[in-house]
Design brief:
- By secondary structure, this protein is α+β, with helices and mostly antiparallel strands.
- The chain has one domain: L,D-transpeptidase catalytic domain-like, CATH 2.40.440.
- It has four helices and eight strands; from the N terminus they run H-H-E-E-E-E-E-E-H-E-H-E.
- The radius of gyration is 16 Å and the shape is globular.
- 46% of the residues are buried.
Length: 224
């Protein structure tokens, strides 16, 4: 594909009006295909992805391999986010990882979709890419632009794999939510659930979006 970063960002911006009030909405009124190659690296800024560091946890190794596989669609290769959905929601499981070292730099609580945990156990039971499933999807995402919607400032995501390529149409985004609250863990042993979005504490989500910016990889799965 001969798409530039500016062309893809323009396409996402043009679509923003129809999603301005949508966040974690599983069935938008008029589904529109997400950009095939979101936020690709411009030729003058393309940086080769270094070989994965030795002795990193298997899930981080998977994420680094995904970065290499999708290198042409990911603008920045200095850090990635890894989401370990094998952990319960009461534990910090959204990690920002330094690519050069494979080390975790920062971690947060993050919600999973109610369709992935219909009984409210606090753990992911299944994944789905289907509209209306309200489930989390596994796979590699690239961060797109931020916008203001029903959950305040949020950030769009584009799925890069067959398991999550409906993420843009499903409005699977990063946003803050009052149901992601450590106080809930003390009362019920888990945080609340989203409709498939990566939902964070309202006091933390701005930092998450600032660290990731546009054009960085998020890899979500379960540890082996």
């Amino acid at each position: 594909m001969n798409l530039t970063f500016r062309a893809v960002r323009g396409a996402v911006t043009a679509f923003a009006a129809s999603l301005a009030l949508a966040s974690c909405v599983s069935t938008p009124e008029a589904p529109i295909a997400a950009p095939v190659a979101a936020l690709p690296a411009e030729p003058e800024t393309l940086v080769e992805v270094a070989p994965p560091p030795l002795d990193v946890p298997p899930l981080i190794a998977e994420a680094l391999a995904a970065l290499e596989a999708h290198a042409g669609q990911v603008r920045h290769h200095d850090k990635i986010a890894v989401v370990d959905f094998s952990l319960p929601s009461r534990e910090p499981r959204f990690h920002v990882v330094d690519v050069a070292t494979g080390k975790i730099e920062r971690s947060w609580l993050v919600a999973h979709g109610s369709g992935s945990d219909p009984d409210g156990t606090g753990t992911v039971q299944r994944f789905s890419n289907q509209p209306g499933s309200n489930a989390s999807s596994r796979g590699a995402y690239v961060t797109a632009e931020t916008y203001v919607g029903q959950h305040g400032r949020s950030q769009r995501l584009v799925g890069l794999d067959a398991d999550n390529d409906m993420a843009f149409n499903r409005a699977i985004v990063i946003h803050g939510a009052d149901y992601v609250d450590p106080a809930l863990i003390a009362r019920q042993g888990r945080i609340g659930r989203s409709q498939g979005c990566f939902a964070f504490e309202e006091s933390e989500v701005a930092e998450v979006m600032a660290l990731l910016g546009e054009g960085r990889l998020i890899y979500a799965s379960t540890a082996a």
